[in-house]
């Protein structure tokens, strides 16, 4: 049997980026997944990106990941959300051909040197001297490696709910992965928790009355920084055409049906113990919580070119199937719609993330990394972002590199992981721009400028790619320099450009720069003072973070802490004061206390030595 | 809930043609299948057609089915097998892009008017007064209809074997369907039996040394009669390119590995009770049975454009996975090959076909039809052919039409179904040209001339299509008439043409006829006397079949029959003397006996009346 450096378990969105990152860093990498045909399957929405999620896709792309290019190559339509607002919240989003996305992704993995794909279910870990040394599969194979990344998504003890019907499974069409969950608990002693998520019904095109719906076409745009020379229209998508989405609304009848049947929802009658996401609520949640609203918007999204199924974005539900039929038929345009697949909710095990480091290694098992939905997040992009970091760190560990940790001022991925490991999760975690303190730094348009160097330095991005960004950066900086020095009407060109009335073209006139570079300069000029302010905040935060917290600090016996702070600090064990300060329920006064405590402890150590 | 005419359970190759046939005949048709994404999945080989199977695809196509066109639209390469031999055994075969085949087929169903696709597992049948009236699904839905077609493939109590490892499942990636099997036994009182089939491992392209293999390219050709104006090269396949296959051979080392490990095969150590197919044997079967052969040929077939997986045609096995690795590595060119998916065998329940009529209705349940692998066959084409007949008959029953039964002299599909219902099955049934008595009548090139009228008359084929064949037939007949009347050198042109030295062109010279028509005329002329002889045999057989056997005939008390004949006749209950004569173990003398017995019975009835 081959000797692997890194083994990834689970070929979802997290496992994909983890596998690619690891192999691209030169580690002999094995991906074990239950069904090769389901690599990169979109369990829910056939769409990538959106608010804050689009930022993450750009970040993954900037660091050499695949999600952006794969989305571009399978897009049915592209949209820049929030484009009427400030650049910090612009968010790219694409509707994809679900099957093309999957197939192309599978092939990317298969083609990648040093990456080996193997169909099997991982059942349990074998440990030796505090390290994980092997994973055992259903076929009795025992694969050894130096580091492992676990990316089981919604599959660990997955249980699907269709109203009162319960079926074991990771999602429809896939069996659950129960054994690995037992192994985490029993062999590795990890604490697991239970979360849930849901998906709406799919209906058949020929039964939809599109005339009653509002048509929404896409625009030109794309995710990847690496195909900048290719227009959206010229990307090779195997000839698939562009497709519109449609907008509809629920009616008073929808509200009535749901209100009358609410007691049948497993979320409301107690059959699901797990906690669902507040941010992707089911239609019964929405009707229940926003009782004053008469109608909710829904999007009808095509699932692909070779299917007549439409995804009903907005009516995720776990109500019984007969109620689902009534809900669908109550929506104007869907009076005669036929449900091809019913909506359902799925409950699954999560590795409680207080056991995890920012590198995504587990605190008690330093060569086992966790990424994706099993860390308590929800969403393909969140999963992929974690996968990239976990895969890089697994390969980094094998190569003897220090961990790769993105900071909160460097990437949404950093914000997300830091949130996960410092905040109690009580529902699936989803990214929002509001989760970031430094939104003007973390824009979707500058992910390459923020992250490509980091990725290149860590070995994730080849020099040919990094060079492009390096050259772009030089061009931008030189031009900014020039604009600051050249003056007209008593002000520098830079000052002119900082006015919202002006554009680069109006200030400079004709130039050789690409639209991309002009846009960067313009944003830098316009938002300079806000950006500067955020940078100062970052500095302050960094100074705080410079104070590492020794592992030996004992919160339980520290006087002056509230019980909540004491418990959370013991649970999360923050690595520095910055992280401690971000824990919900820990006050600035308590941070001061801890700081004093650390000083005292350090002095006592000196005396001992 | 909608009122359906016909409900099909199972969206494999049988269920697909059944659904389409039923809906095209105007019946409101519901297809219930476990996973919509797996409609038309090729569980094994990514290829359609081959010896005798290619004939069936042509027959399906001639009758308005979809398999031929779908194959053409997803073909990676086409070949006419046996083209150096006589026209009776020419057999078209195409390698397909597995995923494209599936996706396109799914969409064909979704687009078909009156056909409704629904994702669910059918659990049990509800009966009333000797009729099936509804099927119940896992979601608690109870769908009613006037006729049902069951097409569960390898899924009923499916059990997969990877050496000693046993996993329940219909095939990898799909759960088994156990409940419906229980319902057949317990609710419907049917007799089930157990069969098995197997599939080889898939290996990754980047680990194959193609230089050690022999490359095989395809040729120009296609299945469908309905795209005759389109050249192979111009069929829309979404831009997928053509791909070669490769030929390799097992080595002495392969033989050694298998011989040493034979005791580990569940087929040899008794862990599989079911019976496998002699015609698609596993590699251990081949090594065991042909012990004198040093080496066996294998074909490496691409699984599609968007995958690097290759199918190892020829080494299907259920040996343990570590032995599979050794087998693969013993093949020159595969020394370093990595297995992405292991080979396995699957065992499943079959509805013993002696309970089935030639219409594919079940004798005790006249509105429940069965088609495909659950009738004991193996192969996509065999399944699809049955599906078409079962679907047509289900819709025909609802419309009050007499059953559509293809005779042994009309179609391979007829031969197959008649074999199934008259012969004891002890292994999965596969079609061969040798199974047909009238091979010169049942050619792959004349399926349209044989079957389009039958399909049109039954309502399966629209007039626009039938008209094309009608016109072709007229052209052929008029031309044959002319050739018979026109003379040169003392012989009619027809007589000249009957010589194997001549071709239509050499005899007639320039003409306006298409190659297709010229080929038909040439074959008709060359093989006229053989064709005539077969037609006479058909007539004799028909005279025998004119003697229907009354249902009341009691074989158990008929003197003069051998025990074997008595048992088989009671079991199969042939509908006429022709069918009785085809039952294995029933002699011509016994047929005479039965004939006398019938006469006597009829006279006794007359007296009674
Ligand atoms: C019903 C449903 C509804 C959802 N709704 C939403 C939504 O509304 N919004 C949203 O943002 N997200 C939603 N999601 C979540 C989204 O699908 C996930 O966030 C995303 O797919 C997570 O990616 P992942 O890589 O972590 O795991 P997954 O995509 O779940 O992939 C896990 C992979 O690991 C494999 N695997 C698991 N265990 C093993 C094992 N032991 N051995 C080998 N392989 C294994 C599985 O086969 C699978 O391929 C939904 C998911 C489901 C199932
Ligand atoms: C491992 C393996 C190896 C094989 N090897 C060969 C080979 O070497 N040569 C060869 O010619 N053939 C082979 N076959 C057989 C070939 O796949 C079948 O002959 C063909 O697919 C049969 O078509 P079908 O329509 O009868 O059933 P299938 O293609 O098996 O389709 C059955 C469908 O019904 C659905 N279904 C089943 N039960 C239910 C239910 N209760 N409710 C709803 N849906 C249901 C399933 O999900 C599936 O979609 C192999 C099959 C397998 C699994």
Gross morphology of chain A is globular
- N- to C-terminal distance of chain A: 49 Å
| CATH architecture label of the largest domain in chain A | 3-Layer(bba) Sandwich
Strand order of the largest sheet of chain A: 15-16-17-18-14-19
Count of domains of chain A: 4
CATH homologous superfamily classification of the largest domain in chain A: FAD/NAD(P)-binding domain
> Radius of gyration of chain A from the CA trace?
25 Å
Query: Strand-residue fraction of chain A?
Result: 15-25%
The tally of strands of chain A reads 23
- Given as residue ranges, the uncertain stretches of chain A (5+ residues, pLDDT < 50) are none
Protein name (chains A, B): tRNA uridine 5-carboxymethylaminomethyl modification enzyme MnmG
Pfam families (chains A, B): GIDA, GIDA_C_1st, SAM_GIDA_C
InterPro entries (chains A, B): FAD/NAD-bd_sf, GIDA_C_N, MnmG, MnmG-rel, MnmG-rel_CS, MnmG_C, MnmG_C_subdom, MnmG_C_subdom_sf
Subcellular location (chains A, B): Cytoplasm
């Amino acid at each position: 049997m081959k000797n692997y450096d890194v083994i990834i378990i689970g070929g979802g969105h997290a496992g994909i980026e983890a596998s690619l990152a690891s192999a691209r860093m030169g580690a002999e990498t094995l991906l074990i997944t239950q069904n090769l045909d389901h690599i990169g399957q979109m369990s829910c929405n056939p769409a990538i990106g959106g608010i804050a999620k689009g930022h993450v896709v750009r970040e993954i792309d900037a660091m050499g990941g695949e999600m952006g290019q794969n989305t571009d190559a399978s897009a049915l339509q592209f949209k820049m959300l929030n484009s009427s607002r400030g650049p910090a919240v612009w968010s790219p989003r694409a509707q994809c051909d679900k099957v093309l996305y999957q197939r192309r992704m599978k092939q990317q993995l298969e083609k990648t040197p040093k990456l080996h794909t193997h169909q099997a279910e991982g059942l349990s870990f074998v440990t030796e001297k505090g390290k994980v040394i092997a994973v055992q599969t259903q076929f009795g194979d025992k694969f050894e490696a130096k580091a492992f990344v676990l990316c089981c998504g919604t599959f660990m003890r997955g249980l699907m709910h269709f109203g009162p019907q319960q079926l074991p499974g990771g999602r429809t069409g896939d069996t659950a992965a129960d054994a690995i969950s037992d192994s985490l608990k029993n062999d590795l002693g990890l604490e697991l928790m239970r979360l849930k998520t849901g998906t709406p019904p799919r209906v058949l095109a020929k039964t939809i009355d599109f005339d009653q719906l509002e048509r929404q076409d896409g625009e030109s745009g794309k995710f990847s920084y690496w195909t900048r020379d290719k227009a959206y229209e010229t990307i090779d998508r195997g000839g698939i055409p562009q497709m519109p989405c449609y907008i509809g609304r629920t009616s008073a009848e929808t509200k009535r049906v749901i209100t009358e049947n609410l007691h049948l929802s497993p979320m409301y009658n107690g059959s699901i113990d797990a906690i669902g996401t507040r941010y992707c609520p089911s239609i019964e949640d929405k009707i229940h919580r926003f009782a004053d609203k008469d109608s909710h918007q829904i999007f009808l999204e095509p699932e692909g070119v070779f299917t007549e199924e439409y995804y009903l974005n907005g009516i995720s539900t776990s109500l019984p199937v007969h109620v689902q039929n009534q809900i669908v038929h109550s929506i104007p345009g869907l009076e005669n719609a036929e449900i091809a697949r019913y909506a359902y909710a799925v409950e699954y095990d999560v590795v409680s993330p207080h056991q995890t480091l920012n590198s995504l290694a587990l605190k008690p098992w330093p060569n086992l990394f966790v990424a994706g939905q099993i860390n308590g997040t929800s969403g393909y992009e969140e999963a992929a972002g974690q996968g990239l970091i976990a895969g890089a760190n697994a390969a980094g560990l094998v190569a003897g590199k220090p961990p790769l940790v993105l900071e909160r001022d460097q990437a949404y991925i950093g914000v997300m992981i830091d949130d996960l490991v410092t905040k109690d999760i009580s529902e699936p975690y989803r990214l929002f721009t509001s989760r970031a303190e430094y939104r003007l730094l973390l824009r979707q348009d500058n992910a390459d400028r923020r992250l490509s160097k980091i990725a290149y330095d860590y070995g994730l991005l080849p020099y040919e790619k990094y060079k492009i960004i390096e050259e772009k950066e030089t061009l931008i900086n030189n031009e900014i320099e020039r604009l600051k020095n050249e003056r007209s009407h008593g002000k520098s060109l830079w000052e002119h450009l900082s006015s919202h009335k002006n554009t680069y073209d109006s200030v400079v006139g004709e130039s050789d720069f690409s639209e991309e570079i002009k846009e960067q300069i313009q944003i830098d000029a316009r938002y300079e003072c806000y950006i500067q302010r955020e940078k100062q905040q970052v500095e302050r935060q960094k100074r705080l973070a410079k104070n590492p917290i020794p592992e030996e600090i004992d919160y339980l016996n520290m006087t002056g802490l509230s019980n909540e702070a004491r418990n959370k600090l013991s649970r999360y064990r923050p690595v520095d004061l910055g992280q401690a300060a971000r824990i919900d329920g820990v006050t600035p006064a308590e941070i001061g206390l801890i700081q004093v405590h650390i000083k005292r402890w350090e002095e006592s150590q000196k005396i001992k030595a």
